[in-house]
Design goal:
The chain is α+β, with helices and mostly antiparallel strands. It folds into 3 domains: 81 residues, Uridine Diphospho-n-acetylenolpyruvylglucosamine Reductase, domain 2; 126 residues, Uridine Diphospho-n-acetylenolpyruvylglucosamine Reductase, domain 3 (2-Layer Sandwich); 207 residues, Vanillyl-alcohol Oxidase, Chain A, domain 3. Helix content is 24%, strand content 21%. It has 13 helices and 19 strands. Strand 5 and strand 6 form a beta hairpin. The chain is globular, with a radius of gyration of 22 Å. The structure holds flavin-adenine dinucleotide. GO terms for molecular function: FAD binding; oxidoreductase activity. Its cofactor is FAD.
Length: 475
């Protein structure tokens, strides 16, 4: 046992698998043996709980793992990884599946929600969370401390999954790429060892975990730095869709001079006329601006004057926010949803770009539910040698998302999203973090060839038998 290895139970580390790595199995491993070693639950195809255990938040991604381990402890993760090594089957982790892909098929899929510990050292602005902790849970625990974590737009995604994907934070213009905040991690590595690692004990694995995805280890906990946030404010301003040209121009003007503490998104929203939606938005086309500000609501109101003046405000939720409320601003659905999305970036957001996007996206005929522009810049431009996603140089990102209520709707969803992204191709601004890639984007959309080559070396070092499989495999 190495000095940073954590003492764990039951069965011993395994022998290496075959020289060419972990093969996909042709016959099923003896899952009954695994079931009796777990304190959590093993769920197999055909079991009553299978549909819920095997499906992701994104219901439009049909997932077909070989088995699901609903882990209750880090010891369960160690047991599952050692079992996978012994029986030459791949293993992956999925906290919720906001970033689901079909890459997890045929793996033992570890559900990490049971790893739910939250530990906060407010004096030193540090938190440590289990791999299943969602941002809303950590942020709510920070209420009243004057601190925040670098969360993204959804409180429903896990802290760990967000960091592994690099993490584009609502506070990124102040704090930089989310993964910069990771200080240390508790992992089960490719030899089945349970280890606590940091930059001095395993710098290359730490680098890969800060934005390279889940191909290198199963993370059981992360330690992160928190940011001072004595006051946070924010909310959504909603306008009729017909105001989009003036509202988006006001958005362009403000984001051209905004302080780093202010993050603004602009969206076109086309809600379908379905009974599941509240009456006030059912069948409506709207334009929205979402704001999150590290400061008082009075200061935010002053910054938002040109936007409020740019159209008829039909709803206004701007208010002081507790850290636990940040994930409510963009009104993203927490319940599992069948979604298809694509993303790209922009080098600028001016009249030319606005007219190009709105020419298609201003009416429901564009076929998507939402086209969202995110203002980047600020500290996102600051490089860090310690993270895969060193910095994000694009000025804005674009996300086009639509719902896919039945599988037959997928080709139309692809076509609608692709058309919006193709319209803005000439304005491309540079790569995004891997967490923000669209469903069909290759790894090269996030990383340079040099970074991909280094990730492959890190993968071979941390996981010589290739037992781990992430949603974005690097090999
Ligand atoms: C509506 C919407 C809004 C979003 N907004 C943002 C945003 O603002 N910023 C942003 O950065 N991203 C955003 N995302 C993208 C992204 O989906 C999530 O940040 C990220 O995937 C975490 O979500 P999750 O916890 O559900 O992880 P999952 O999708 O469940 O996991 C993602 C992958 O991470 C790896 N992984 C997760 N946990 C572990 C672990 N413990 N050990 C090893 N590997 C692991 C696995 O490969 C897994 O497949 C958004 C996605 C949607 C659908």
């Amino acid at each position: 046992m190495t000095s940073n290895e954590i003492s764990t139970p039951a069965d011993s580390p395994t022998q290496s698998a075959s020289a060419d790595g972990v093969a996909t199995t042709t016959s099923l491993p003896p899952f009954g043996e695994l079931a009796v070693m777990l304190t959590g639950t093993l769920v197999l195809p055909g079991d009553p709980g299978w549909p819920a255990a095997s499906s992701a938040w994104n219901l439009a991604v049909p997932q077909r793992p070989a088995a699901v381990v609903v882990a209750e402890s880090a010891a369960d993760v160690v047991t599952a990884v050692r079992f996978a090594l012994r029986h030459h089957i791949r293993v992956s982790a999925q906290p919720g599946g906001h970033g689901a892909t079909t890459a997890l098929d045929d793996t033992i899929l570890i559900r990490t929600r049971g790893l739910a510990d939250i530990w906060i050292d407010a004096d030193n602005a540090i938190a440590r969370v289990g791999a299943g902790v969602k941002w809303v849970e950590l942020q709510s625990a920070l209420d009243g401390t004057g601190l925040t974590g670098p969360m993204g737009s959804s409180g429903d995604v896990s802290v760990t999954g967000f960091f592994l994907g690099g993490g584009l934070s609502m506070f990124g213009r102040t704090t930089g790429v989310g993964a910069h905040a990771v200080r240390a991690a508790e992992v089960v590595d490719g030899l089945g060892r349970h280890r606590w690692i940091d930059d001095s004990s395993d710098p290359e694995l730490m680098w890969a975990l800060r934005g390279g995805g889940g191909d290198f280890a199963i993370v059981t906990a992360v330690e992160l730095s928190l940011t001072a946030a004595p006051e946070i404010s924010g909310g959504r301003l909603v306008f009729p869709a017909t105001d989009a040209p003036t509202v988006w121009r006001a958005y362009a003007e403000i984001t051209g001079t905004a302080p780093d503490e202010l993050t603004l998104f602009a969206s076109m929203l086309h809600f379908p006329p379905i009974p599941e939606l509240p009456e006030e938005i059912r069948g409506q086309s709207l334009c929205a601006v979402d704001a999150v500000y590290l400061g008082s609501v009075d200061a935010l109101d002053a910054l938002l004057v040109p936007i409020r003046a740019a159209g008829i405000v039909v709803r206004d939720t701007v208010r002081p926010l507790a850290p636990g409320e940040v994930g409510t601003v963009c009104e993203e659905p927490d319940d599992p949803s069948p979604a298809y999305l694509g993303t790209t970036t922009l080098g600028r957001f001016d009249d030319d770009v606005i007219d190009t996007i709105l020419a298609r996206a201003a009416t429901p005929a564009c076929g998507v539910l939402q086209v969202q522009i995110r203002h980047l810049g600020g500290a996102l431009l600051t490089p860090s040698e310690n993270a895969v996603c060193r910095r994000i140089t694009a000025a804005y990102s674009v996300m086009a998302m639509t719902m896919v209520p039945v599988p037959e709707a997928m080709p139309a969803a692809h076509a609608s999203v692709a058309a919006i992204l193709a319209d803005v191709e000439e304005f491309y601004g540079g790569p995004l973090s891997v967490s923000m890639l669209g469903d069909n984007d290759p790894l090269a959309a996030a990383f340079s060839p040099e970074v991909i080559a280094r990730l492959r070396v890190a993968k071979n070092a941390a996981d010589p038998d290739g037992v781990f499989r992430s949603s974005r495999p690097v090999i």
